[in-house]
Amino acid sequence: MTLSLDSLAAIAEVVGAIAVVLSLIYVGHQVKQNTKALRTQVHETLVGHVFAAEGTLLANADLARIIIKSSSVSESLTPDERLRADKYFTFEFVNWESAYLHYKQGFIEEQVWRRWDISSYPDKEEQGYFEFWAKHRDWYDSSFANHVDRVFINIGYTEAIPEGSRNLENR
After folding, report:
1. CB of 103 within 8 A of CB of 160?
2. Distance of alpha carbon 45 from alpha carbon 32, whole angstroms
3. Is 66 helix (H, G, I), strand (E, B) or coil?
4. Which of 9, 28, 138, 170 has its CA 20 to 30 A from that of 66?
5. How far is it between the farthest Cα atoms of the chain?
6. What is the DSSP letter of 3?
7. Is the CA virtual torsion 80, 86, 90, 96 positive or negative?
């Protein structure tokens, strides 16, 4: 039995189509694996940042004292203490913003984001934290700033939120 040129072309076309389908399945699997690895890497990076912040407080008694002092009477901080407290709060808010933006981009899953988000909420007694936000809110991504404003409203602390941002129902 001899195959005509048309028959061979048809067979080659079918084999080519099967190869394309198999290639697409393989690429889909690789993308899924890469996404999983990227999410893991993002999570590990964020955990590292949290441990760095916490480690700084554990290893530096002066900074821990300043953060505690800023929680109740931040106006009594010396300029040096204010600078150190502000740098620490910057680190805290940048970590929170980073997790938020990674979540919005799909690199953090919903249930993981919720844990990150809740763990970032300040206690209502942390006056220095709120004062920092009131002064430096504009440094951050606007959607993150709106998120933080909603969190602060929900925990009953509106003093840190600019007047024009207190009505967040439409955001």
Report:
1. no
2. 20
3. helix
4. 138
5. 98
6. -
7. positive
Percent of the chain that is helix, strand, coil (3-state, to 5): 80, 0, 20
Cα atoms in the 13 Å half-sphere on the side-chain side of 123: 7
130 near 152, Cβ under 8 Å?
yes
| Residue 164: both structure tokens together | 């024009």
Q: Which two tokens stand for residue 72?
A: 């109740």
Cα–Cα distance for residue pair 131/86, rounded to 1 Å? 10
Half-sphere exposure of 46 (CA within 13 A, CB side): 26
DSSP annotation of 138 reads G
Which amino acid, 141? D
At 151-165, the pLDDT tens digits run: 988 887 777 677 655
* Of the candidates 131, 134, 140, the residue with the CA atom closest to the CA atom of residue 82: 131
Place of tokens 């690199």: 107
Q: Any idea where the domains of the chain sit in the sequence?
A: 5-165
Q: What is the mean pLDDT of residues 144-151?
A: 92
Joined tokens for residue 58: 């554990």
| Residues 6, 104: Cα–Cα separation, whole Å | 53
